[in-house]
Amino acid sequence: MHIAGLICMGFIIGGLVGAKMATGLSNTVLEKIFGAALLLISLKMIFAK
């Protein structure tokens, strides 16, 4: 149960920090970051065994 609490705290803190960072960035930068993340995830799915 201790680990679940730490994970929960990480999600909450990460969500708050990520929201603050995302509101400070332009739409173009957010689109590029999101596109890069999707590309990396798709490559991992393609090449995973």
Distance linking N and C termini: 32 Å
The string of secondary-structure elements, in order, is HH
Mean pLDDT, all residues: 93
Low-confidence stretches: none
**Helix/strand/pairing category:** mainly alpha
Give the beta-strand count: 0
Q: Considering DSSP H and I runs of 4 or more, what fraction of the residues is helical?
A: over 70%
Task: Kindly give the count of domains.
Answer: 1
Q: What would you call the shape? A: flat
Radius of gyration, whole Å: 15 Å
In DSSP terms, counting alpha (H) and pi (I) runs of 4 or more, how many helices? 2
State the major sheet.
none
β-sheet strand percentage:
under 5%
What labels describe this entry?
single chain, 49 residues, mainly alpha
Mind explaining what this structure looks like?
The chain is built from two helices and no strands. 90% of the residues lie in helices and 0% in strands. It has helices at residues 2-24, 27-47. The chain has one domain (2-47). It is flat and about 35 Å long. It starts with a helix and ends with a helix. The longest helix has 23 residues, at 2-24. The protein is mainly alpha-helical and 49 residues long.
Fold blueprint:
Elements: H1 2-24, H2 27-47
What's the quick description here?
The protein has 49 residues and is mainly α. The protein has helices at residues 2-24, 27-47.
